[in-house]
Write a structure and sequence with these properties.
Largest sheet: none
Helix content: 55-70%
Order of helices and strands: HHHH
Strand content: under 5%
Length: 92
């Protein structure tokens, strides 16, 4: 274990979760705390551990492949947390 009391596996898991949160932020134009919420909701709604959801998201970024159930729930969760568009915003 490292000095922080977190083993190497824990550090690696946290890095994967952080990468997945970053992908949620970029894809969904959401804040990092909302990215965490999206991952948590996908985990809860699919009964897949959060770390595994994060791993699937990171792999999806590399390969373009995602299990259909995870992908569908991810899309729904991002839609729930996406910024709301204001009618007429940006229109001249």
């Amino acid at each position: 274990m490292g000095r922080s009391g977190v083993g190497e596996e824990g550090v690696t898991s946290q890095a994967v979760v952080d990468q997945a949160i970053g992908m949620m932020v970029a894809l969904g134009r959401i804040a990092p705390d909302e990215g965490w919420t999206v991952l948590r909701e996908v985990s809860q709604h699919t009964n897949v551990r959060l770390r595994e959801v994060a791993e699937l998201v990171v792999l999806w970024g590399r390969s373009g492949e995602m299990p259909p159930q995870i992908g569908a729930e991810l899309e729904e969760a991002l839609d729930r947390h996406a910024p709301r568009q204001i009618t007429g915003a940006g229109a001249d």
